[in-house]
Backbone:
């Protein structure tokens, strides 16, 4: 046995898995922004309703969840064999497979592949894996321009902003804010653009069309990589994915090693679970599947980059490894009372919400994301919503026991999160805080449970509108 | 040590001696179920596809395309096309030539009632993936025997090695306030001709 073979965390100094500040400090900014809360609340309410309706149409939703959960457990238990099978099948179909131990290696592989083509611009389909490793920054440093083609990613990129949701990175923006960003940043945009969503979508269509037709290299992620056939699948809505997967000469796909799926047949489970839990649709508008290279149809050069970047460290924890079962549907975000109040930026990682609270600390090592396991009230809504039945609350508790926090702070942060989930308690605590006018820098005058948290952190300034007023106005 | 050996070694180390490989319960609905074409039509329409249930294909295509120009895949049956409509058959057409067409007509490989989905598998009557992507109007001719009730049946019918495109309604996005808005990069108009020959 060699130390080189030990599971390793995602390295520091590269990628977007670590925030600049701890969760409670970052959440304070968000809690003071009523527009952000309204946008989030509106969007998550919409999606919960849509998702609930289409899930209720399936009489066997619970059986599908159990199958999905078991398939993921099976996958993890057989990961080496499945990855080697995937490599063999992709190679046999004309693709080239690369293995990347961490973000630095993945960025280097992708950058070199693009340099070999001589191109200086790539089109990108929204992908969590490439965000996680900060591929765009690495490409820019090498003089290559990455163009995000997903509408929400485009909004984020044009707005010089950060993504705040797995599925809808611009969920924190409403239509009038999106209009303003387009008017300000989109070259050639019609100055008469309104905030009507179809018009906004039309503006993105016109803006990107020429880029799609003239760019020779695309970079994508993958929702599934099927071991027994070598087939890759990308699930999307807008058709920007189809453009990227079809038009260029070269396609480079970056996939986390946990995304492998044992067999073709298993798609029958995941293709039912994912769209209903994710966008609340019976089926998303477009799903593309390709196996290596097809002569005369689509990219004639295909590269698959298999990424570890801390995943093996997650796998090494028998309790925590379930976090690798995630199919990135974002249902746990949409039902989380803490996420709904703080938004995604507070989590400091590309993986926000409940899944982020268990995945990011395990990928980086708990010491680099020590406050995240506390970013929850343990209400359990995420567990109920998860299409592959990841027991997020149990993993949170497990991680709290590893987090290097003094006992008092642990208790206080947990209590504060608990309170955020219960408006009456929060209001009472907050009103007392306002009345007492003892809101010193260290917040010692606060009533429990906020005093404990505030005593070891700076106090979250009460939002101008009280939590309860805001709650009523929902 | 190559990165492949490194990663596989790490995984084996992480899994340790836990070799138990859990079974997968498959007691969800599988196997053939009766096909309800009315429900298919309803589900297609729910996601803004326009459905034509007709005995005659060329007449319907003429009505949809009007005075426009069509591109079609090389193997599309000639008798589906109205004689007076200008048609270009794909023979290594450029992206610009495909974009210039007002619409594309394809067949399909499979359709799924429960989700309102059609699947194209790039057979000669469906063509290269680019063909059904660039024109703003996609007309898809579907025969009842291609329709299955559920996703598991569709997965079982399809051939994995082929390039597959699952289509459920026209291009849409949920990126603005999480509501479905039709019409981004893919075809903004999807017409399904459900050909129920007499
Ligand atoms: S943890 Fe579950 S609910 Fe959350 S994004 Fe992943 S699959 Fe979806």
Residues:
């Amino acid at each position: 046995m060699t130390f080189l073979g030990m599971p390793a965390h995602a390295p520091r100094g590269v990628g977007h898995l670590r925030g600049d500040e701890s969760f409670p400090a970052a959440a304070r900014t968000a809690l003071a922004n009523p527009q952000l809360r309204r946008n989030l609340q509106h969007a998550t309410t919409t999606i919960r309703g849509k998702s609930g309706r289409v899930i209720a149409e399936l009489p066997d939703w619970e059986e599908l969840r159990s199958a999905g959960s078991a398939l993921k457990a099976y996958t993890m238990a057989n990961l080496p064999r499945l990855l080697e099978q995937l490599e063999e099948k992709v190679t046999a179909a004309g693709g080239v497979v690369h293995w990347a131990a961490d973000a630095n290696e993945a960025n280097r592989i992708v950058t070199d592949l693009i340099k070999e083509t001589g191109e200086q611009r790539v089109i990108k389909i929204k992908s969590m894996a490439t965000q996680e490793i900060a591929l765009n920054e690495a490409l820019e440093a090498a003089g290559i321009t990455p163009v995000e083609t997903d509408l929400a990613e485009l909004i984020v990129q044009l707005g010089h902003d950060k993504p705040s949701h797995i599925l809808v990175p611009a969920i924190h923006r409403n239509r009038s804010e999106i209009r303003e960003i387009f008017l300000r940043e989109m070259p050639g945009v019609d100055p008469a653009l309104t905030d009507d969503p179809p018009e906004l979508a039309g503006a993105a269509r016109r803006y990107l069309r020429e880029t799609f037709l003239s760019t020779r290299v695309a970079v994508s992620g993958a929702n599934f990589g099927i071991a027994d056939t070598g087939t890759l699948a990308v699930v999307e809505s807008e058709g920007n994915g189809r453009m990227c997967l079809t038009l260029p000469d070269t396609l480079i796909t970056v996939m986390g090693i946990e995304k492998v799926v044992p067999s073709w047949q298993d798609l029958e489970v995941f293709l039912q679970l994912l769209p209903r839990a994710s966008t609340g649709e019976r089926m998303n508008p477009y799903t593309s599947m390709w196996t290596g290279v097809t002569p005369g149809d689509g990219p004639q050069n295909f590269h698959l980059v298999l990424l570890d970047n801390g995943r093996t460290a997650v796998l090494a924890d028998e309790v925590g490894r379930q976090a690798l079962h995630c199919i990135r549907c974002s249902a746990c975000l949409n039902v989380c009372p803490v996420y709904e109040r703080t938004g995604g930026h507070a989590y400091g990682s590309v993986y926000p919400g409940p899944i982020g609270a268990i995945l990011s600390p395990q990928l980086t090592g708990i010491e680099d994301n020590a406050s995240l396991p506390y970013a929850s009230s343990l209400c359990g809504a995420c567990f109920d919503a998860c299409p592959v039945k990841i027991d997020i609350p149990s993993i949170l508790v497990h991680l709290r026991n590893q987090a290097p926090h003094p006992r008092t702070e642990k208790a206080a942060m947990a209590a504060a999160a608990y309170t955020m989930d219960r408006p009456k308690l929060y209001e009472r605590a907050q009103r007392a805080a306002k009345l007492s006018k003892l809101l010193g820098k260290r917040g010692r005058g606060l009533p429990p449970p906020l005093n404990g948290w505030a005593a070891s952190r700076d106090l979250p300034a009460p939002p101008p509108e009280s939590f309860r007023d805001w709650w009523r106005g929902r | 040590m190559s990165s492949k050996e490194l990663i596989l070694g790490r995984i084996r180390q992480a899994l340790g001696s836990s070799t138990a490989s859990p079974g997968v319960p498959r007691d969800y609905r599988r196997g053939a179920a009766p096909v309800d074409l009315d429900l298919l039509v309803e589900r297609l329409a729910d996601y803004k596809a326009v459905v034509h249930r007709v005995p005659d294909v060329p007449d319907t295509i003429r009505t949809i395309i009007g005075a426009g120009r069509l591109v079609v895949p090389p193997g599309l049956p000639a008798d589906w096309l109205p004689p007076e409509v200008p048609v270009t058959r794909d023979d290594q057409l450029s992206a610009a030539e495909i974009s210039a067409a007002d619409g594309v007509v394809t067949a399909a490989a499979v359709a799924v009632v429960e989700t309102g989905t059609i699947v194209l598998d790039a057979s000669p009557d469906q063509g290269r993936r680019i063909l059904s992507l660039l024109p703003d109007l996609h007309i898809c001719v579907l025969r009842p025997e291609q329709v299955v009730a559920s996703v598991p049946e569709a997965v079982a019918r399809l051939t994995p090695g082929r390039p597959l495109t699952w289509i459920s309604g026209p291009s849409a996005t949920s990126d603005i306030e999480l509501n479905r808005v039709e019409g981004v990069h893919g075809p903004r108009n999807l017409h399904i001709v459900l050909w129920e020959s007499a």
